[in-house]
Amino acid sequence: MRDKKPCLCNSGKLFAECCEPLHVGTKDAGTAEALMRSRYSAYVEGKVDYLLKTWHPSSRPAQIAAATIPQWCGLHIVDTQEGGESDKQGIVEFKATFLSQGKAQVLHEISRFVKEEGLWFYLDGEIQADSFPAAVSKKAGRNEPCPCGSGRKFKKCCGP
User: Fold this and answer.
1) Other CB atoms within 10 A of residue 130 CB
2) Residue 117: how many other CB atoms lie within 10 Å
3) Is residue 160 part of a domain?
4) Cα dihedral 72, 73, 78, 79 sign
5) 112, 134 contact by CB (below 8 A)
6) pLDDT, greater one: 130 or 102
7) Ramachandran quadrant class, 133 (left: phi over 0; alpha: psi -120 to 50; beta: rest)
8) pTM, whole model, 2 decimals?
9) Local confidence band at 104 (pLDDT 50, 70, 90 cut-offs)
10) Domain span at residue 74?
11) What local confidence, expressed as pLDDT, does residue 142 receive?
12) Any idea which of 21-35, 111-125, 135-149 has the lowest mean pLDDT?
């Protein structure tokens, strides 16, 4: 029986049909956005090897400490520029919500991607000034809507 778990990247697709095939290597990302989504879900799952593999060698860190990865709760793609199947470069602007000490925070980034030898790579990103706004830092109650914007209750989404 196929896994019916929704994809962690908030695409609306099943994980088994969206990001999982990229993580296990049975499929390559066809677009910069697909790679961005798969990298987000890899962060959620702590798949450090996949993150390093999909990071361009010119900007890739030597390692990523899994213990430093926050608890990611939601991804919203704001905009994409280029990054299609026939492009060699692309930009994906996104907002990702995470918990820090029980409070929701937002990372707003414009990420650059390059395609080399048919494979997309994350090159770098520019964190936007509205990241981590104090207004979003309210601690959510268990039965309140999750501050990540998923529409689910906090206890069923980002809550402990």
Assistant:
1) 11
2) 4
3) no
4) positive
5) no
6) 130
7) beta
8) 0.84
9) confident
10) 15-95+108-135
11) 63
12) 135-149
* Cα 50 off chain centre by: 13
Q: Phi and psi at residue 64, in whole multiples of 5°?
A: -125, 120
Q: In CATH, what number is assigned to the domain containing residue 30?
A: 3.10.450.50
**What pLDDT is attached to residue 137?**
44
SS (H, E, C) the chain: CCCCCECCCCCCCEHHHCCHHHHHCCCCCCCHHHHHHHHHHHHHHCCHHHHHHCECCCCCCCCCCHHHCCEEEEEEEEEEEECCCCCCEEEEEEEEEEEECCEEEEEEEEEEEEEECCEEEEEEEEECCCCCCHHHCCECCCCCECCCCCCCEHHHCCCC
Residue 140 banded pLDDT, cuts 50, 70, 90: low
Number of structural domains, the chain? 1
Closest CA to 94 of 112, 69, 114, 118: 112
Q: Judge contact between 8 and 40, C-beta under 8 A.
A: yes
